């Protein structure tokens, strides 16, 4: 094999190894997937459900973010005025707006619900109350 061919083969093998590593990391199960949106009664806010997480770095979960209707939620981004995490299987999760600024959430038969929760500290943004119970 000529020196020029070896150089080309070496570069090609580096590209192949890089592609395999990149594909391998991507295939490890990172998720940022839109699931559903529940608008508030007056339409100014919404609760957006997303499947989030990476099996290598964090647990997979359903992230519920409450934010203004004009905004878009992203996994692990603090774009909302309030939010919480629920188990990845969102089928048992029940959400209901009690008023324009109060969201009721329940996840029957799950003792650690919600897994985490937050509220934005920005007084210029709407204030939202999250109510959690075993049954609505």
Q: Let me know the number of strands.
A: 8
Widest sheet: strand order?
A: 1-2-3-4-7
- N- to C-terminal distance: 73 Å
- DSSP strand (E) fraction? 35-45%
Individual helix count: 1
Mean pLDDT: 80
Unreliable stretches, pLDDT < 50, 5 or more residues? 15-27
Query: What order do the helices and strands follow?
Result: HEEEEEEEE
Shape: elongated
What topology does this entry show?
Layout: H1 3-26, E1 31-39, E2 45-53, E3 61-68, E4 82-87, E5 94-99, E6 102-106, E7 116-119, E8 129-133
Parallel strand pairs: 6-8
Antiparallel strand pairs: 1-2, 2-3, 3-4, 4-7, 5-6
Describe the fold and architecture:
The chain has 136 residues and is α+β, with helices and mostly antiparallel strands. It has one helix and eight strands. The protein has one helix at 3-26, and strands at residues 31-39, 45-53, 61-68, 82-87, 94-99, 102-106, 116-119, 129-133. It has a five-stranded antiparallel β-sheet, with no helix packed on it. The longest helix is centred in the first third of the chain and has 24 residues, at 3-26. The chain is elongated.
């Amino acid at each position: 094999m000529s020196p020029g061919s070896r150089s080309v083969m070496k570069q090609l093998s580096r590209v192949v190894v890089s592609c395999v590593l990149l594909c391998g990391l991507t295939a490890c199960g990172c998720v940022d997937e839109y699931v559903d949106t529940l608008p508030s009664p007056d339409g100014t806010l919404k609760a957006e459900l997303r499947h989030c997480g990476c099996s290598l770095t964090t647990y997979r979960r359903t992230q519920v973010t409450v934010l203004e209707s004009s905004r878009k939620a992203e996994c692990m981004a603090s774009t909302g005025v309030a939010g919480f995490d629920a188990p990845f299987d969102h089928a048992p999760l029940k959400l209901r707006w009690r008023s324009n600024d109060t969201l009721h959430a329940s996840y029957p038969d799950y003792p650690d619900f919600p897994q985490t929760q937050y509220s934005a500290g920005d007084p210029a943004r709407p204030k939202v109350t999250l109510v959690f119970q075993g049954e609505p």
